[in-house]
Amino acid sequence: MRRPSQLLLLVGVLLLTTSFLKFEGTPIASRIVDLRKEHITLRWKDPQGHVIGDLGALRTRIAQEGSDLLFAMNGGMYTHEQGPVGLYIEDGKVLNRIDRRTDPKDNFHMQPNGVFGLYNDGSAFVKTTTSMKDMVQVRYATQSGPMLLSGGVINKNFTPGSKNLHIRNGVGIRTDGNIVFAISREPINFHDFATWFKAQGCDDALYLDGFVSKAYMPEAGLQQMDGQLGVLIAVTAR
Q1: Within a domain: 16
Q2: How much is the average pLDDT of 89-93?
Q3: 10, 94, 95, 152: which has the highest count of C-beta atoms within 10 A?
């Protein structure tokens, strides 16, 4: 016969396991990118100045360059003309200026707003917009919002159990420097999405976009090559 203390311990383990399994069952598809083995670029227009627009066209473009597309995702909110909203830097050139306005009524301007990008040395970052002071060493950047995590803390504007459910995609930086891209397979609220990124070991994570989001993630069964998108994130082998 088990002692009361043993029974309590067993119950505690079962509760923790159940919680873990429930959380791990969250319908989110993700891709970890190791920048030592893979290369990330941000794309918007082709050399002729036409908006690439969808992941199918992006894969074709990458193939024309002699590479294979391993993973892709839309890289933030965009205008009706499929242009970037806020900061956009491609190959070291600032093609759209940073937007530092605040407005709690829309997702993009909810604070803190943020930027995902890569430096010239190949390292990646997710930063709040207010911390983006010097962009001289930035090779790629796309602005979006709100931040899901800042310094390991979930955005205080998010409500646990919120019924504001949408398909969402985002990006986070793990403490080991690897990048986590994720897209929900089913509608999810901001708080749960941020909690998921935190559980993956991310200190900082950024919401990219909502119901229009698409991903090319063959290993997860996602090949969403259509849509009308703006900035695109491409991952190829080094």
Answers
A1: no
A2: 96
A3: 95
Q: How far apart are CA 42 and CA 118, in angstroms?
A: 9
- Which SS3 state, helix, strand or coil, does residue 202 take? strand
Residue 219 CB contacts under 8 Å (≥ 6 apart), including other chains:
31
Q: What DSSP string runs through 58-89?
A: HHHHHHHTT----EEEE-S-B-TTSPBSS-EE
Beta bridge partners of 116: 126, 142
**Amino acid 26: pLDDT:** 58
Range of the domain at 135: 27-237
Q: Which amino acid is at 219?
A: E
- Long-range contacts from 95-100, C-beta under 8 angstroms, 24+ separation: 95/44, 98/129, 98/132, 98/143, 99/129, 99/143, 100/129, 100/130
Orientation angle between helical segments 4-24 and 190-199, nearest 10 degrees: 110
8-25 confidence digits (pLDDT tens): 333 333 333 222 333 445
- 161, two tokens: 């159990």
In a domain, residue 109? The reply is: yes
Number of domains in the chain: 1
User: pLDDT digit string (tens) for 26-75?
Assistant: 589 999 999 999 999 999 999 999 999 999 999 999 999 999 999 999 99
The residue ranking higher by pLDDT, 219 or 11, is 219
Element holding 217 (H helix, E strand): strand 215-217
